[in-house]
From TrEMBL:
Lineage: Bacteria, Pseudomonadati, Pseudomonadota, Gammaproteobacteria, Oceanospirillales
Name of protein: Peptidoglycan D,D-transpeptidase FtsI
Species annotation: Vreelandella subterranea
Record GO biological process: cell wall organization; division septum assembly; FtsZ-dependent cytokinesis; peptidoglycan biosynthetic process; proteolysis; regulation of cell shape
Keywords annotated in UniProt: Carboxypeptidase, Cell cycle, Cell division, Cell inner membrane, Cell membrane, Cell shape, Cell wall biogenesis/degradation, Hydrolase, Membrane, Peptidoglycan synthesis, Protease, Septation, Transmembrane, Transmembrane helix
Catalytic activity: Preferential cleavage: (Ac)2-L-Lys-D-Ala-|-D-Ala. Also transpeptidation of peptidyl-alanyl moieties that are N-acyl substituents of D-alanine
Amino acid sequence: MSTQRRGVSSRQAPVAPPLPGGRFFFVMLLIVLVSAILIGRITLLQVIDRPFLQSQGDARTLRNEVIPAHRGMITDRNGEPLAISTPVVTLWANPQELPDDAIQRIVLAQALGMSLESFEARVARYSEHEFMYLRRQMTPEAAQRILDLRTPGVYPQREYKRYYPAGEVAAQLLGVTNVDDVGQEGLELAYQPHLAGRPGQRRIIKDRRGRLVRELDVIREAQPGGDLTLSIDQRLQYMAYRELRSAVVENEADGGVLVMMDARSGEVLAMANLPSYNPNNRAGLDPRGLRNQALVDVFEPGSVMKPLAMSAVLESEGFDRDTVVDTSPGWMRIDEYTIRDFRNYGELDLAGILEKSSNIGMSRLALELNDNAIWEKYHRLGFGQSAETGFPGETTGHLPAPIRWSRSERAALSYGYGLSVSAVQLASAYTAIANNGTRIPPSLLRLSSNPEGIPAMTPSVANDLLDILETSVGAYSGGRRARVEGYRVGGKTGTVRKSGQSGGYATDAYRSVFAGIAPISDPRIVTVVMIDHPKAGEFYGGAVAAPVFSSVTGNALRLLDVPPDREVD
């Protein structure tokens, strides 16, 4: 038995671990390499390629969306709305996201009011695109019913739609906008920059299905369009349109025009045209109804020009109100033309010439004047020139230059043939008689103050013509049906032959015209009425147009609180 020394352990000394082999070094190297690759990749993505990757990500999720601007309102002179923009919803789709399920497509097509064949054809046409309209300008309620179907690939877009409360009553004056709310006709077109405003823009995030995730910020606020206050009075406009339509229907006419102007300011208080159309529903639209005939169309005015030509006579030496003209035997030959009166009126003073509407009397007076006297008078009254209302397509009319005029041409101008005018030009010319000889340019916008007029005749001549025009609607005159109960009014009738298709004048087609002023004691309004081709029997201006003037003027004077200036008959 061996003996162990004290203090010495009987256990063996620990064995050192073996040195690592090749497998360990391989694993460690692999970890280092992978880490280096990951670090390099992260560096590449986060530092080197970050701008590119960020732009690509933004392109797929970040959007700049247009904020539509609210179009300005158009109102009448009293603030009553004539054209307003209402919010609507347009539905669009991404054809590449629409479901393939036949049932879902059938349900969507039916909800859109389309046949499945039409819907499939539309989708096929836009199959290579990511956008197509489904339905434009729906009411929010109707659009929501379709969105509630939760059809993949169908999205809403907020827009505005123009609405016209007056409908057909003022359609041609206001004009219309297209489906993108851009003015296309009338004052909507003329004042497009003012009414349209400026669309805004916002930055948003959308998911891969095009749905809004978050609004980041507003880049530019939408600036609403400016409002437009017109000169017309909606009450007078409705009344004028109603009376004009009644006359057109009653006389089986092709159409008609009525213009009412403020004699002091030139503001157009009413402007009615027939035929017309409903701007809120343009299905089956008659293109003739689009034209604002009062401003863009012309006609030969006929005898309503005689008071204006008479102003040139009264301003010439050797003539006054008591001048007498022998119109016997009721016809006269000038050049190769024969001019006739309705019958032989014999001797007439100047008031009698207008009251009887004598072509012979006017012709004989015109031929005694300076060659250019009537042309110069008509030019000063605004004929042959733009009325400068700013309305698109406004006509200048036609006033032939006084070069080598024949005697028959000079005579014809004196009784309203050989020139063409618009209804607005004619009404503006009559403001010179109503306004102490100063013609007031027409305005379609409400004015803050009366404009400076254009001297067109002397005040004394204008006052003489007012008196003569009042006799022209006397109880036994051809214009007697223009009389207004309780008010002194004056005016002139016109019955104009229309041009024939093969040249010359038609024998059975007329325009019936009346131009008048009221009240005579203190003129407030000037009204022009033209009825185109009445076919019910009567066609004289005194029988067809004068009653419209009477009804419209009487109602207008009462609505405007103009006190009566004549005892009731």
